[in-house]
Amino acid sequence: MPCEEGEKNVTRSACPPPPFDPELEAALAELGLVAVSVEYRLAPEHPHPAQIEDCYAGLTWTAEHAGELGIDPGRIIVAGVSAGGGLAAAMALLARDRGGPALAGQMLLCPMLDDRNDTPSAHQMAGRGVWDRTANETAWNAVLGEARGGPEVSCYAARGTVRGSSVPRRSHPPRHLSARLGSPHRRR
Fold first, then answer.
1. What is the DSSP letter of 76?
2. Which residues have C-beta within 8 Å of that of residue 153, sequence separation ≥ 6?
3. What are the domain boundaries of the chain?
4. Please, which residues have CB within 8 angstroms of residue 111's CB and are 6 or more apart in sequence?
5. Residue 2: which of 27, 41, 49, 34 has the closest Cα?
6. CB atoms within 10 A of CB 181
7. What topology does CATH give the domain 8-178?
8. pLDDT tens, residue order, the chain (188 aa)
9. How far apart are CA 140 and CA 48, in angstroms?
């Protein structure tokens, strides 16, 4: 269940509805998978928690309608790229904390997980490429406003801020995490 790519939180551009692209559509068909894409409210007009609540509503709707969608409810995963990866991670936390749909996994691709924007890779990418440290900061400011980087940021907004959780790791669904070398979202 992919959330839309993160830059859309700021630029307000819209992704076309499924089919996403021919390669993805072919892969989904070949593997017998169903993809559900959630349209969510955008920042800065709608700051956190609007985006995650919209995505979580899409997740619960999907789980409740799994049968009519041809989805095995025991095989639902969440996936996303950039801010969508952060939203997918947050959906997994919300599902765990709210007793929501059991997830089979997470696929987080270049996820925006840490609003502090102070990782070594964020500094390495300052002024480089399309999505650099400044763009990253702009996006986090749009979603979190003045709270960005502070101690009051919810773990559902910035998954990277979760430290020393008392919830056992086994209660998290398995995850695949991938970040490009040229990404300010890497931890190193």
1. -
2. 115, 144, 147, 161
3. 8-178
4. 80, 81, 82, 83, 84, 85, 86, 88, 89, 159, 177, 179, 185
5. 34
6. 8
7. Rossmann fold (3.40.50)
8. 444 444 333 333 334 444 457 777 788 888 888 888 899 999 999 999 999 999 999 999 999 999 999 899 999 999 988 899 999 999 999 999 999 999 999 988 888 888 998 888 888 888 887 888 899 899 999 999 999 999 889 989 986 666 545 455 556 787 777 765 555 555 55
9. 10
* HSE-up of residue 59 (Cα within 13 Å, Cβ side): 35
- Written as six digits, the tokens of 2 are 């992919």
- Quote the tokens at residue 83: 């801010």
* Amino acid, single-letter form, for residue 76: I
Q: Residue with structure tokens 């801020």?
A: 161
List, in sequence order, the alpha helices (H) in the chain.
8-11, 22-31, 50-64, 66-69, 83-98, 120-124, 133-144
